[in-house]
Structures are given as C-alpha cells and as structure tokens.
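Lab notebook: predicted structure, single chain.

Context: the supervisor wants predicted structures on file for every construct in the current expression panel, including those that have not yet been purified. This is the next one on the list. No modifications to the sequence; it matches the entry in the shared construct table.
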Amino acid sequence: MDFVKAEIKEIPDIMNIIKNAQKYLEEEGIDQWQNNYPNPETLVNDINNQNSYLIKKENKIIATAAIIFGEDPTYNLIENGEWISKGLYGVIHRAAVAPEYRGRGIISLIFKKTFQMGLDLGAKSIRIDTHQDNSSMQRAVKKAGFKYCGIIYTKDGSKRLAYERLIGR
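Prediction complete. Output recorded below exactly as produced.
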C-alpha cells in the first residue's frame, strides 16, 4: 500500500469515501459529519495546503486523512484535562476508510505514517479528536497509543473527545 499526497483530480474519489463514512455515521446514530462537512471545498483547501493524504492499494484510493503540523486553533482550548506536551504537534483530521476496507487496520497505517512524518519534522506529538459516540474511532486511537486528554470544540461548537500521543525518540 502507498501513502501519498492527494491531487485535485482525485477529489471525486475521495468524496465517495467521505460520503460513505457520513452514511455509516448516520446509520450508527453518530451526529458527526452530518452538516455537509467535509465537502469538496474542504478537500481543495487541504490539497492546496499540502495536507491531504491518501492510502492507495493497487492505485485505488482506500483511505483519506488531513495531516497538519503546527498550531491548530481548535486545540487551543481544552476542557476537563490538558495536553500531554507543548511544542510542535501534528493533527489528524477528516480520516475515513473505504467501506470494504473498514476493520482491516487501515486507520492504524495512517497513524503510523503520521507518527513517522512527525518524527521527521521534529514534532513532539500527534493529536486527534472524535465524536463522543464514535466508539470505533475511540477504540482505534486508544489501540494506537493515544491518551485521552479532555474536551475540545470544533468551529461550529460541536464537542469532541481529544487525544494525544507522544512520538519523540
């Protein structure tokens, strides 16, 4: 499997994965990604900022994520806890896996690639957040060694559980 940066021409295929994830979350009764987010404009922004990554198998997109290093304003305020580290960190946003590859460890591959990117950039940690009802993502982040740190709020005011994992050498 290949871990590569996304290109604008791949937005329709990436959106298919995101739409499937939105449908899955809705079917599971999880009020996450139900407000036209992420959308093509979000992906264009991620790609233009060199933050959109894909997992491809035999040249087919099977997963997507935005991986961003540097301060994320969403993470400036944390309630009922605190971040583990200070300094440069990366954030994983908008991670989704194609339906036929769910449960096969693809998200853990995204995590591993992000940890390596962070090490290469000298980051101290990786952060991620998820909806309080998204138990499958909560299990995945805990399995990958992330520690629960507290509550953050997205731009639209939605509450999210926030996690962090140290990656230093």
